[in-house]
Specification:
Elements (H helix, E strand, L loop, with lengths): L3 E2 L5 E2 L15 E2 L40 E7 L6 E3 L1 E3 L2 E3 L1 E5 L7 E2 L8 H5 L10 E2 L1 E5 L4 E6 L2 E8 L11 E8 L3 E10 L24 E7 L4 E10 L5 E5 L4
Parallel strand pairs: 3-10, 4-18
Antiparallel strand pairs: 1-2, 4-12, 5-11, 5-15, 6-7, 8-9, 8-15, 11-16, 13-14, 15-17
């Protein structure tokens, strides 16, 4: 394993284990992790395909159900310092991303802030939210582990035919949610050493303070903004073992 040089203080080793972005302008600070995160330790609810097969080919744009969740484990192996998971990319607070290893543009998950699927657009759901929610950073203590789940699906780029919509403005490029086929995928985790909101210079250091749970993590009141660091790993699907990423800071 090769350490990734992050400057004179920081290097990261990946032990195991991009995204299509959509822009927006207004930002509203809020908790809950944003669109790009799942509740820790859960697999997510079963999805339901939308639309119906009318014989005109429009059912090809239906969303596949969410699959069986595969655990994503992000661990802080540093002995002394906490890390902060999540960074804001075009209104989405990303704590992990999954994409096709050989071609990230061929499919990814989770969705960006304003990335309705073709199935949603068929029903006229193509408007972007007016505000841009900014999720809070997760503080991960030394030895702590944050768990979430990838529901074994990808958002695959496509283009919606005008014949398949109820709102003529809802046409054009959009992703279809599909079950992830067998193959190799790349998982990426994003973290901050110190969110901007609680920087000693111009920030509020108390915004990064919170009481960790038994797994060693908690949600701060600090927006997940600052200089991001990423680590990634290639994994095989389908498998049942967790997708595991471990951070180690080297002197």
């Amino acid at each position: 394993m090769q350490p990734v040089d992050r400057g004179p203080r920081l290097a990261v080793i990946v032990l195991a284990g991009a995204t299509l972005l959509a822009g927006c302008t207004d930002r509203t600070v809020g908790g809950g992790g944003g669109v790009g995160s799942s509740d820790p330790g859960t697999t997510g609810p079963a999805g339901t395909a939308t639309g119906s097969d009318t014989g005109d080919g429009c059912s090809a744009f239906d969303d596949a159900p969410l699959g069986e969740g595969r655990t994503v484990e992000i661990r802080n192996a540093e002995a002394n310092d906490p890390i902060f998971l999540g960074t804001v990319t075009s209104c989405t607070t990303d704590r992990y991303r999954v994409a096709v290893a050989s071609d990230p543009d061929a499919g990814h998950y989770p969705p960006a802030h304003c990335e309705p699927t073709c199935a949603s657009m068929r029903e006229g759901g193509c408007a972007c939210p007016e505000s841009c929610p900014v999720g809070f950073a997760i503080r991960l203590e030394p030895g702590g582990v944050y768990r979430t789940a990838w529901p074994s699906v990808l958002l695959v780029p496509d283009e919606l035919s005008p014949d398949c919509v109820t709102d003529e403005s809802c046409t054009g490029a959009c992703p279809i949610r599909k079950a992830a086929p067998a193959g190799e995928y790349r998982a990426e985790a994003v973290f901050l050493v110190e969110p901007t909101a609680c920087s000693p210079v111009g920030g509020d250091p108390t915004a990064c303070a919170c009481e960790p749970n038994e797994d060693g993590w908690c949600e701060t009141s600090a927006p997940a903004e600052g200089e991001p660091y990423t680590v990634d790993t290639v994994f095989t699907h389908p498998q049942t073992d967790p997708i595991s990423i471990e951070f180690v800071f080297l002197p």
